[in-house]
Design brief:
With 419 residues, the chain is an alpha/beta fold. It has 16 helices and 15 strands. The structure holds N-(iminomethyl)-L-glutamic acid (NIG) and fe (iii) ion.
């Protein structure tokens, strides 16, 4: 079989090539599009993105040639915030929320994260891998080729390790690329309810060392929120994570202004995620510390709220915004990046170009992979998607359907629509 691949006849090759850094301000709108172009791939690497003639000149005898049929080619989406390994689902709570129950009320009654924890503790690693593969296919067929993947539905040493080992297997056994994050501090498990400091100690003194020793995570995350982990506890856990060589991310200011953004800045975290309630001071702190905000409008939408994070204010302040799904069975049950792009444009007034940058190259930088993925440039990993549209603005415009016609991960076909 040939090891080179040419994609020709593309209406647009959305390369996102440019400065080797996360994009801010006006650069968020620069997609470096090549009209009527193509892509040349050798093995798992991009050799060229260029005009039709340039790509055609590279084609030799055993090159596989794909006629894109005047469709759009762009990098695979990089989904920088997901919780993709869990058992069961919470359709029952979804129904209760339609009758007026709130996310917090359900959590206070032992539902919410804790109900998924119960189901996930009862599942074996092979069951979790099987379920995870099912969701992994959802991501791929939506055009996502890399996901950041958090643990956090185990909340015991063995169950957290089980989830992280499942993530490792999913990374090895499927075309989707997983970047693992340890989120042992996702909630206080019910058995520690009256002795929360003991749980914080368990995370710091027992879970983190094991996770680091087995090299099961690249990042450490904490759900910093009123009634969940305080800023002081979050500081302790993330500081310990850093000592173990992990990068830092945190769930910040999602349900209330609880100081998460400022803490992320103080800790020089890679990202502060959610930020629905972050104020101007918090935004300035993120800017000063170059922390990337990861906005998760799917969680606002699916919780039936209308309090979206202030994306425009963040862009005006010069932040390198990222968009992600927050895929999970509670607050954001969607793996679809194009659904997120639609919400980002209609509800947060990001432009279609800003939304594309935020979900590809900026997301890649937030995961420490800006040199490897997120744009179509020579030498980068050949993760790309041929979308069944002729203009990139259509991703966010036609909503409720998935656009990918072919998805390639590391130069190999990972999803193909039948026709
Ligand atoms: O990012 N905020 C905390 N964690 C998830 C929700 C997880 C769940 O509801 O199961 C989030 O929204
Ligand atoms: Fe989350």
């Amino acid at each position: 079989m040939s090891n080179s691949l040419a994609v020709i006849n593309c209406s647009q090759v959305v390369t996102l090539s440019g400065a080797r850094r996360p994009r801010t301000g006006g650069d968020l709108r620069q997609l470096a599009i090549i009209e009527d172009g193509g892509l040349f791939v050798r093995g798992d690497r991009i050799e060229a993105a260029g005009r039709r003639k340039q790509i055609e000149d590279l084609i030799d005898g055993d090159c596989e040639v794909i006629d894109a049929g005047h469709r759009v080619v762009m990098p695979g989406f990089v989904d920088a915030h997901t919780h993709p390994v869990f058992a069961g689902n919470r359709a029952n709570e979804f129904e209760q929320r339609t009758a007026g129950a709130t996310y917090r009320e359900l959590a206070a009654r032992g539902g919410g994260i804790r109900s998924t924890v119960r189901a996930t503790r009862n599942a074996s690693i092979s069951e979790l891998v099987k379920i995870g593969k099912h969701y992994g296919e959802w991501f791929l067929r939506g055009g996502t080729t890399t996901v950041e993947a958090k643990s956090g539905y185990g909340l015991t040493i063995e169950d957290e390790l089980k989830i992280l080992r499942a993530i490792k297997r999913l990374d090895e056994e499927t075309p989707l690329n997983y970047v693992p994050t340890f989120l042992g501090a996702h909630d206080i498990p019910f058995e520690y309810k009256s002795r929360r400091h003991m749980y914080v100690n368990l995370v710091i003194n027992e879970m983190l060392p094991r996770v680091a020793e087995e090299k099961l995570a690249e990042y450490c995350d904490v759900f910093c929120e009123t009634d969940v982990f305080t800023t002081e506890e979050t500081w302790q856990i993330l500081s310990a994570g850093r000592c173990h060589g992990l990068g830092l991310r945190l769930h910040a200011d999602q349900l209330s202004l609880s100081g998460g953004a400022k803490l992320a800045a103080e800790l020089n975290a890679a990202t502060a995620d959610h930020l629905e309630h972050t104020d101007t001071e918090g935004i300035q702190a993120l800017k000063a510390a170059k922390v990337q905000p990861v906005l998760l409008p799917g969680a606002v939408y699916a919780l039936g709220s209308n309090r979206y994070p202030p994306a425009r204010q963040m862009i005006d302040a010069g932040l390198a915004v990222v968009l992600a799904t927050d895929f999970n069975p509670g607050s954001s049950p969607t793996p679809s990046m194009t659904a997120i792009l639609s919400i980002a444009c209609t509800q947060m007034k990001m432009t279609p170009a800003e939304a594309v940058t935020a979900s590809t190259i900026n997301a890649a930088y937030s995961l420490g992979r800006g040199d490897e993925i997120g744009s179509l440039e020579k030498g980068k990993c050949a993760d790309f998607v041929i979308h069944d549209v002729s203009d990139y603005r259509e991703f966010a415009y036609w909503f409720g359907i998935e656009h990918p016609w072919r998805v390639y991960a590391q130069g190999k076909l990972a999803f193909s629509r039948v026709r």
